[in-house]
Write a structure and sequence with these properties.
heterodimer; A: about 300 residues; mainly alpha; MetI-like fold; 2 strands; B: about 280 residues; 13 helices; globular
């Protein structure tokens, strides 16, 4: 940044840099690093939540985890939920971004309105949707009945596979604006000349999309998929508040399992074990994400 | 001729979808002003025949809503101030200084930003019990820091790295100290980014649910999210109009902030996905 400052100055600057970051690092260690490490430590104990009395059990929790039907059930549900809602977010988000990139009336108002679901509290989203899904007075059943698509009111949240479909849909509604924001920003930075050149070469709208738009979006889409996969994977609020993991355990994901284990079944050690397992999966995701973003920065 | 025709078609298609997307929110507002008698009419009335603010009045007088609102406000503002002050200094350090471990630190920040709250909630619950902070607003401020700090740091870092170094260098050449240059030159330029970060962090804290659910259990310290859900769970007959009124009220501060943030939405919400 400066043309060769004397080494003493550089050293002094480094010291200022360290002083500036020090408070952040301290808080980091106290509220994030320490709890993370104690989560790993706790996973080696059997702890009863109300009394917090603990007993060392070593890796017993981990062998129990591998043999536990609840864990594999939750892992499968997490996979179904994540893949399902992510696909919808992606398809719907890209389509919406393409539409909003067209010249339309009140374009900026339309762009703002679409972002609302993303930005409201999950609690609000869930309340609204539970009211829409209400089996007796919900407007969704009415509309579908009038349209003749169903013969009797549908129980949206209380039976399978409806409950899983419902949370996937609400998840898609809540989070697709993230895809819209990122993709729209990228679309606006594609040089217009590329399209002009393609048009002169005789490319139709569809060909322009597959030959120019998609390749240009590729990198940003990879990052979006990774980020959304991480966030959907760890989602708690939406699923917990929509179905509570039910009916029975049909929509219980790993996040909900950790919560239930720790604060309903009062087994904190076991809950920590599940949490550590989640952490390992996310660590994998994060490493892929880092490699991807580093590659983009270099390329 | 064709251009305006195409514009018309695209407009109709897009706006139909946009309205479908925001319909649940329109329905929330409609429900919140419908009289009780109309709420359960079959088929439902699309526009309320009479508009009433009865539910809002009941919400403010008969429920602890205002208490929840106050708690949320204190929590979100306190956390935001703490996090933004720490984050501004930290981000400046990460962007402009060279020392060992800087890159590792930046990576660690990202990693914790992506860490699930359920992993932290158990040790934090134990920690609060040990510190004697169980069931206090302070415990929630600490808990919210765990996601707000990495987020703010990440966002501020991208805002700060887009500030050109020239002016700062000029100030240094003119004999300003490093901190003098920071206060006089960097801060004013970073201010828009800092304000946006503060607003995004506020939203994040305002909307938080899991920590609020686990760490506090009395109305005097419960924030809006947990409080409103509690109204749903504990009521014998679910009062949908009241809950929709609460949802509208809960969203008001966000709508105000939203209008301020128009310009930086991409950066704030796209944090991590869009290079700064």
């Amino acid at each position: 940044m400066h043309s060769d400052p004397p080494p003493s100055l550089e050293k002094r600057y480094a010291r200022i840099g360290v002083v500036l970051i020090a408070p952040t690092v301290l808080v980091f260690c106290a509220v994030i690093l320490y709890p993370l490490i104690s989560a790993i430590y706790l996973s080696l104990f059997s702890i009863y939540t109300p009394t917090l009395a603990g007993e060392w059990v070593g890796v017993d929790n981990y062998t129990a985890l591998l043999a536990s039907g609840d864990f594999w059930n939750a892992a499968l549900n997490t996979l179904i939920w994540t893949v399902g809602t992510l696909m919808l977010q992606l398809v719907f988000g890209v389509a919406m971004a393409l539409l909003l990139n067209q010249s339309i009336v009140f374009q900026s108002l339309a762009r703002s309105l679409v972002l609302f679901p993303y930005f409201l509290s999950t609690v609000v989203a869930v309340l609204v949707w539970r009211w829409l899904f209400n089996d007796l007075y919900g407007i969704l059943n009415h509309v579908l009945l009038i349209a003749g698509l169903i013969d009797a009111p549908v129980n949206w949240l209380g039976q399978m596979p409806n409950a899983m479909i419902s949370i996937i849909l609400v998840g898609a509604w809540k989070y697709f604006p993230f895809v819209v924001i990122v993709v729209l920003a990228r679309l606006q930075s594609i040089p217009e000349q590329l399209y002009e050149a393609a048009t002169i070469d005789g490319a139709g709208p569809f060909q322009r999309f597959t030959d120019i738009t998609l390749p240009q979006l590729r990198d940003v889409l990879v990052v979006v998929v990774l980020l959304r996969a991480i966030w959907d994977f760890k989602e708690f609020d939406l699923i917990y508040l929509m179905t509570g993991g039910g009916p029975v355990r049909a929509t219980q994901t790993l996040s909900l399992l950790v919560y239930e284990e720790a604060f309903r079944l009062n087994r904190m050690g076991m809950a920590s074990t599940y949490a550590v397992a989640m952490m390992l999966v996310l660590l994998g995701f994060t490493l892929v994400y880092l490699r991807q973003t580093n590659r983009l920065e270099e390329g | 001729m064709n251009a305006s025709r195409a514009r018309m078609i695209w407009s109709v298609v897009t706006w139909t979808i946009v309205l479908a997307v925001v319909f649940p929110l329109i329905w929330m507002i409609v429900t919140s002003v419908k009289p009780q008698s109309e709420l359960f009419s079959i088929p439902p009335t699309l526009m309320p025949e009479t508009i009433t603010f009865e539910h809002y009045r009941r919400l403010l007088t008969d429920t602890p809503f205002l208490q929840y609102f106050r708690n949320s406000m204190i929590l979100a503002v306190t956390t935001t101030v703490v996090v933004v002050v720490l984050g501004t200094l930290g981000a400046y350090s990460l962007v402009r200084f060279k020392y060992r471990g800087r890159e590792t630190l930046a990576t660690l920040v990202l990693f914790t930003y992506l860490m699930p709250s359920v992993v932290l909630v158990i040790p934090l619950y134990l920690m609060m019990a040990k510190l004697g902070l169980a069931n206090t607003l302070a415990s929630l401020v600490i808990a919210y820091t765990t996601f707000a700090l990495p987020y703010a740091l990440w966002l501020l870092r991208s805002f700060m790295s887009s500030i050109p170094v020239d002016l700062e260098s000029a100030a240094l050449v003119d004999g300003a100290g490093r901190m003098g240059a920071f206060v006089d030159v960097v801060l004013p330029q970073a201010l828009p980014g800092i304000v946006s970060t503060a607003l995004f962090t506020f939203i994040l804290c305002w909307n938080e649910y899991l920590f609020a659910l686990v760490l506090v259990n009395s109305d005097s310290v419960r924030p809006l999210t947990a409080g409103t859900m509690n109204m749903l769970i504990t009521s014998f007959n679910i009062d949908w109009s009241l809950l929709m009124a609460a949802s509208v009220m809960m969203s008001l501060p966000l709508i105000v902030i939203f209008t301020f943030l128009q310009g930086t939405l991409t950066k704030g919400f796209g944090a991590g996905a869009v290079k700064g």
